[in-house]
Specification:
The chain has 187 residues and is mainly alpha-helical. It is built from seven helices and two strands; from the N terminus they run ββααααααα. The radius of gyration is 24 Å and the shape is flat.
Length: 187
């Protein structure tokens, strides 16, 4: 996405503003956000970047795991075996040195990801309102089909039959929704 202000640089800051009940989305590059005064929303300094935001989240996560200022409690610093980046470098820079860093620092990223994704370790995204009903049904059907296969392998055929019937009912509901949406668009 390109910056809405300069139409040149990639937009790295995305704001949702609500003014007098009117909701608007603004997509800006860091330079335009600073020039428009949007950076004051964060800390008011010119040195803010997305890397600073990530670094702040990482430092916040470490505040709970580090021991007190005891110099004897010094532990060996975690280092990526491939690119030799240490965790503190990642915190300062805000990005990894190589793909192996994801595995190396995996245990330190959990608290940060939970904070970014409202308590989840995986970002699931948003479902558009128009297609949301069928997408949820489709996901549920996929889950039930996987469960059905497990039950068949375990030779629990009575439970499998119940799951099969539930899948059929959901598929019928999904088809009815689809027919309703297609019929309603011509109005």
């Amino acid at each position: 996405m390109i910056c809405q202000e300069c139409n040149e640089r990639p937009a790295t800051l995305h704001f949702t503003k609500v003014v007098n009940g009117e909701k608007s989305e603004v997509h800006l590059c860091e330079r335009c956000a600073y020039e428009k005064g949007e950076m004051s929303l964060f800390n008011g300094s010119a040195g803010f970047s997305i890397n600073d935001l990530l670094g702040g989240l990482l430092n916040g996560a470490n505040a709970f795991t580090q021991s007190s200022h005891n110099p004897v409690a010094h532990k060996e610093e975690l280092r990526c075996p491939k690119c030799h980046m240490v965790y503190q470098q990642f915190v300062e820079i805000g990005r990894f040195g190589c793909a192996e860093c994801y595995s190396t620092f995996r245990n330190h990223l959990g608290p940060v990801l939970r904070r970014l994704h409202s308590g989840n370790l995986v970002h699931t995204g948003k479902i558009p309102k128009k297609a949301g009903g069928n997408m949820k049904l489709k996901k549920r059907i996929e889950e039930l089909k996987a469960r059905l296969q497990e039950l068949i392998q375990q030779e629990e055929f009575e439970d499998a039959a119940g799951i099969r019937d539930e899948i059929r009912a959901l598929e019928k509901e999904m088809n009815a929704n689809r027919d309703h949406q297609e019929g309603g668009e011509g109005i």
